[in-house]
Structures are given as structure tokens and as C-alpha cells.
Amino acid sequence: MPVPATARARGKRRRRAACAARETARASLYDEVTDRIVAELEAGRVPWVQPWSAPGAVGPALPRNALTGRRYSGVNVLILWGAVIEHAFPSQSWLTFRQAIAAGGAVRKGERGTTVVYADRFVPEAEKARAAETGEDARAVPFLKRFTVFNIAQCEGLRPQALSARATEPAPLPEREVVPIAEEVIAASGVDFRVGGDRAFYAPAHDFVQVPPQPAFFQQINYYRTALHELTHATGHPSRLGRKLTTAFGSKDYAREELVAEMGSAFLCAALGIVPTVRHADYLASWLDVLRDDNRAIFRAASAASKAADWLLARHQAAHAEAGEGRAAA
């Protein structure tokens, strides 16, 4: 029996209204997170280095899910780091309400969670049907949803054996120590890495990184922070992750790439147990301009920074595994 035209029209109106509501909610979430980051920057606090600015604060680490050990990424790193410093949590490990129960405990009564976001794409059934009928490619619809997590310090009764061993905090490093694991990451990157001169930079046209010798740094640990910043730039080469690198100094595209490199270095430092710092605080005004103009800029930059850090860490893990196989065969 055919569906009356009036019913079809009402169905279309309902679908359009639902779609508009989802778009409004997604835009609201982008605005909410961006406004929070902008407020931090305007107050002179940089969200990707802040958690270690206070004496006695938790050591550097990327936030992880305490049950699965999986690292959070992108803008969620900034959100969770901000919550750690705001509430002085002693851990970078997080759980959902249900995961706390699954781990044998519970969230303490009265505790307030931290909102993180999940972004992905999906193909609606109606779109699949349309594509099958027309022979065209199905169009995926982006979606963004929020969910709430709690720091393990907000929970009680958790069974230690239920928590992932990968969610432990790395031991802090002495301030003036050569960091073997950072040396390994640099070597495993495969990037042409040169030491010399009095400037640190990445040359996209010739695809090499150059940093001054380590003794030239007042604090020698800054050698690694700087090296990781420049290596994050290098991941944008077309042969790697392919970001837009040939931009004019002072332009918004230049500021966007510097934002990616700043966060990429901070994420890498945290993963390696090095306290992140701001390498280019003089770019603060240009970062604010970029974030105020585009409520998705911080999401894109944090996502690109996570991908850059993951690319470098994956190379290191592969090299480490290969070395282990070589030793076993010897």
C-alpha cells in the first residue's frame, strides 16, 4: 500500500528537524570545548603543559582508561589534563561510571565527572538504501557525542587486579639527565636529524630537522622538548602524514601548524615521562585568533597532534620489537 504524500512530507520534516537538532548539539559542543580552551589561554594557562606547574602535582603522562589501558587522544587529552590540575587529582587514569562498577568499585557519591567527546562517522540505513538503488557511494554522516568519565581518585573499592597495568604513571625523570627512550624515538623516526648551529627548525623543502647541541641549552632537558617539537613538524611531510607545511610566517596556517607542533611535543613528552613546557609562548595571540575564528580548530589541531605523536611512538615501538627479535635470534 503506497504511503500518502502528506505522511511522506511529515516524515521528511521530522528527519530534517532531527538532523538540525543534531547539528545544533554538535556545534554547541564544539563551542563549549573551544570556549574552555580559549579561557585557559586568555588567563595565561596553556592546557597542554598546565598539569605539572604546581609542586606535588601528578607527574607527566597521557591520560588513559584505567580498565583498558587505552590512551585518550586529541582534544580529550587537553580536557582531562585540565581536570587533573583543576581538581589536583593524583592520577591520569579515568573510568566511566559503568567501568568503575565492572572493576568492583563505584564512583563516590557526590562526585562530578568530566565530559569528554567522541567523534566518528556513520552511514544511516536510508543512505545505504539510496546508494544501493542509485549505484552511488554512500555518504557518511559525521557525529560528535559526549560522555562522562571519572578520575580513579573519585572512585572507591576498585580491585587493583581489574585495572590495566598500562594505566600506571611513569616515574618522573631528573631534570638534567640524558633520556635514552627519547634518543630512541629520535633515531626510530627515520627523519634526517642534524645537531649543530644555534637555531632549531624543520626544513620542509629538504626534509630535515636541525637542533643546537644539547650543552647549548640552559636546561639540557629542553633539548628533547625542542627535538620532539621539530619532529612533530616533520611528521607533516607528504611522505608521512601530509599536513600543510609551506605557509607564510605569521599567517593563520602557520599558527595552526605551530599549535599542532606544540601539542604534539607535549603529548610525546608526557608519553616519555618528560614534563612538557611551552616552546613558543610568543605565538599565544595568534593561537587565540585561530581558535576564536573557528570553533573546530582546537579539535583539528589536537587530533593532528595525537596522530603525529602516535606515528612517532609507533615507529619507536616497531624498532624496539625488531631489536628484541634480533637479540633473541643471536
Number of individual domains: 2
Poorly predicted ranges: 51-55
Query: Strand order of the main beta sheet, please?
Result: 1-2-5-4
Please indicate the percent range of residues in DSSP E strands (runs of 2 or more). Answer: 5-15%
Shape: globular
Mean pLDDT: 82
**Total number of beta strands:** 9
Sheet with the most strands? 4 strands, mixed
- Structural Rg: 23 Å
Give the ordered list of helices and strands.
HEHEHEEHEEHEEEHHHH
Structural class: alpha/beta
Kindly state the percentage of residues in helix: 40-55%
Helix count equals 9
Terminal-residue CA separation = 75 Å
Oligomer: single chain
In short, what is this structure?
The chain has 330 residues and is an alpha/beta fold. It is 47% helix and 12% strand.
Task: Give a description of the structure.
The protein is of the alpha/beta class and 330 residues long. It has two domains: 13-167, no CATH class; 180-329, no CATH class. The protein has nine helices and nine strands. The chain has helices at 5-42, 75-87, 97-102, 125-134, 180-188, 221-234, 252-272, 284-293, 297-329, and strands spanning 64-65, 93-95, 106-107, 114-122, 141-151, 155-156, 192-195, 201-203, 208-211. It has a four-stranded mixed beta sheet with strand order 1-2-5-4. Helix 7 (252-272) packs across helix 8 (284-293). The protein is globular, with a radius of gyration of 23 Å. The protein starts with a helix and ends with a helix.
